[in-house]
Amino acid sequence: MVAVAKRLFDLLASALGLAALLLPGLIVALLIKLDSPGPVFFRQQRVGRFGVPFRIHKFRTMRVDAEAAGLLTVGADARITRVGAWLRSHRVDELPQLIDVLQGTMSLVGPRPEVPRYVALYPETLKAQVLSVRPGITDPASLRFRNEGEQLAAAADPEREYREVILPAKLACAAEYAVSASLWTDLGVLLRSLRVLLRG
C-alpha cells in the first residue's frame, strides 16, 4: 500500500508540475540555446531501481564536451555556462526529472541516482537496499550535501574526497531512507527541500 500511495502521488505531482512549468520551461530552453551551442537537455545514464539503467533528464548547464573532463562538478567549475550557473544555484536544472518521475524511472523523493562508475563502488551490504527503491529528485542526503561542489573544491583530491568521504555518507543516508520510506516521510523531505530552495 505504501508503494502504491507513493507512486500515485508521484504521478499526480509530476503531471501537475510539468503542466505548470511548460511555459517557464520553454523560456529556460530558449535561454540555454541563446547562451551556448548544444542541446537543451542533458541526458546521462544512471542506475535506477534494482540496478536497471535509465537516462536522466536535466536542463543542460555545461558545455557539450564537459563529460570528457570528468564526472564531478567541483566548485565554480569552468565548464558551467552563464545560464547554467543560475539554473544550478536555483536547482532549476533538476526540473526536467519530472519527466522521469512520470515515466516511472524516478520518484520525487528517493536516493539520488548515480552513474554506473560509482554504483560499482557500493558495498554489497548496502547496494541491494539502496537500489530497492526508485531514485529521486531529492532526498535527505541531497539536503545534507547541498554544498557538495564547495566541499569538493576545498579538497586536495576531489575524486578521492567523493569516493572515500561523501559517497559512503550518502549511501548510509540512502540506506536509512530506503528502510523507513513512506508517503509522510517523502512529504517531509519535499517541504524541507522547498524551504532550502526558497532560502536560496
Word description of this protein:
This protein is mainly alpha-helical and 200 residues long. The protein has one domain (2-199). 55% of the residues lie in helices and 10% in strands. The chain has 10 helices and 4 strands; from the N terminus they run ααββααβααβαααα. The strands form 2 sheets. It has a two-stranded antiparallel ribbon. The chain has a two-stranded parallel sheet with strand order 3-4. The N and C termini lie far apart (35 Å). The mean pLDDT is 92. It comes from Ideonella azotifigens. Belongs to the bacterial sugar transferase family. This is O-antigen biosynthesis protein WlbG. Pfam families: Bac_transf.
Q: Tell me the strand percentage band.
A: 5-15%
Mean pLDDT: 92
* Radius of gyration using CA atoms only: 16 Å
Q: Based on DSSP secondary structure assignment, what is the total number of beta strands?
A: 4
- H/E element string? HHEEHHEHHEHHHH
**Low-pLDDT sequence parts:** none
Helical proportion, percent range: 55-70%
Shape: globular
Q: Order of strands across the biggest sheet?
A: 1-2
Q: Which secondary-structure class do the elements indicate?
A: mainly alpha
Number of domains: 1
Q: What's the tally of helices?
A: 10
Largest sheet: 2 strands, antiparallel
| Separation, N- and C-terminal Cα atoms | 35 Å
What would a concise description of this structure say?
The chain has 200 residues and is mainly α.
Features:
single chain; 200 residues; mainly alpha; two-stranded antiparallel sheet; two-stranded parallel sheet; 55% helix; O-antigen biosynthesis protein WlbG; Bact_transf
